[in-house]
Design a protein that fits this description.
Residues 1-17 form the signal peptide. Keywords: Signal. By secondary structure, the protein is of the alpha/beta class. It has 13 helices and 8 strands. Helix 3 packs antiparallel against helix 4 (59-71) and helix 4 (59-71) packs antiparallel against helix 5. The longest helix is centred in the N-terminal third of the chain and has 17 residues, at 2-18.
Length: 363
């Protein structure tokens, strides 16, 4: 009798230990900065249901995108925690979990290439959990791949792959190319890891020859050359027509490699065509930052990037801080005034030509 009671208590303890995983990332979400008053707490409450056993595994990725979109870059760690969190599953009904098999999720670049923790009772979970812990620091290659496919490509397939519509297949049936290698006429066999631009989590191993002076100049352009070069097009969901690098009209303000303008458009990143949000226009500034309802999130990102990546001068940084302190509300004139204060009065508020009835009435 005593042995049976002890065994039962152990089972209950194990069940309680595993069926509480949905609570682990919640405090970080609730305490994340950004957003309006109470918004982080609301998002935290919504996130619990995405980690329950009955939830579609793609739901938590969509929720993590929403957290980053609504709260801004200050909530990145909390959003990563949700992506990497273990989702419950009833191991009295099934013996393996379900992992999202939608290659478009998460949509936020900083969240891609991160894999989830797996119940330690699942065979092979040690591989999956090591991948999850490391991917939070160094994301895995996820270009064109779902989270399910990323796991398969990296050696773990003991799960069910489920898409956003609920369609399920065995992970072992997924066909994934696990590595990419490019050979460039080797003279010396020195492998070099190359970060492939916009896809921040993609790394290609290149065996390269000794580089000529001309080739080196192409690979590493000077700051002066980069500042005068045409800027890449916006990578938003709406096709961009960003016209390129321009200088501030205000004497003494040198924004280095960047154009610190702000736009105010409907339909960004999947929002409805009647919902207007703010976003930085320059893709170098905007890298890793979604659009936001709160202009303060975008203003802070712009000012931070002037130091982090733009090589702006002190006067430009000071002007940005001043403009940040004079922001208006969630209206078109806020973006317009921001651009004017920094010397870009002619900047379009809708450079992507997003379909709209016009900005009139949004102030």
């Amino acid at each position: 009798m005593y042995t049976q009671a002890l065994f039962l208590s152990v089972l209950v303890a194990i069940a309680e230990a595993r069926f509480g995983q949905e609570q682990i990332p919640i405090p970080a979400i609730a305490s994340a900065p950004g957003g309006t008053s109470g918004e982080a707490q609301t998002l935290a409450g919504q996130s619990i249901s995405t980690l329950l056993g009955a939830a579609n595994p793609c739901a938590k990725l969509t929720q993590a995108d929403l957290i980053l979109s609504e709260l801004g870059s200050g909530a990145l760690e909390a959003a990563i925690g949700l992506v990497a969190a273990e989702q419950n599953f009833n191991n009295f009904v099934v013996d393996i979990p379900s992992i999202c098999n939608d290659p478009t999720l998460p949509t936020s670049l900083p969240l891609r290439g991160i894999t989830p923790l797996i119940d330690p009772g699942v065979v092979g979970s040690d591989i999956a959990n090591a991948l999850s812990n490391s991917s939070k620091i160094t994301p895995l290659n996820a270009v064109g791949l779902s989270v399910a496919e990323v796991l398969v490509a990296n050696g773990f397939s003991n799960f069910t792959a489920e898409d956003a519509a609920g369609n399920k297949v065995a992970a072992s049936t997924l066909e994934v190319v696990s590595a990419v290698s490019i050979e460039v006429a080797p003279v010396s066999a020195t492998p070099v890891a190359v970060n492939c631009g916009a896809a921040a989590t993609t790394f290609v191993t290149v065996t390269k020859a000794a580089q000529s002076t001309a080739a080196a100049a192409v690979a590493q352009p000077s700051a002066a050359a980069a500042s005068s070069a045409a800027r890449p097009a916006s990578s938003n969901a709406v096709t961009g027509v960003f016209t390129g690098f321009v200088a501030s009209t205000i004497a003494g303000l040198d924004f280095g490699l960047c154009v610190p303008t702000m736009k105010f458009e409907p339909g960004l990143d999947g929002r409805s065509d009647t919902e207007f949000t703010f976003q930085a226009q320059d893709p170098l500034i905007n890298k890793g930052q979604e659009e936001a309802l709160n202009p303060a999130i975008i203003a802070k990102k712009i000012c931070d990037q002037l130091t982090n990546v733009c090589n702006a001068n002190a006067a430009a940084k000071a002007a940005c801080t001043t403009a940040e302190g004079a922001l208006g509300g969630k209206v078109a004139s806020t973006a317009s005034n921001w651009n004017t204060q920094l010397g870009f009065a002619d900047a379009l508020l809708n450079p992507d030509n997003a379909p709209q009835a016009g900005l009139v009435g949004h102030d």
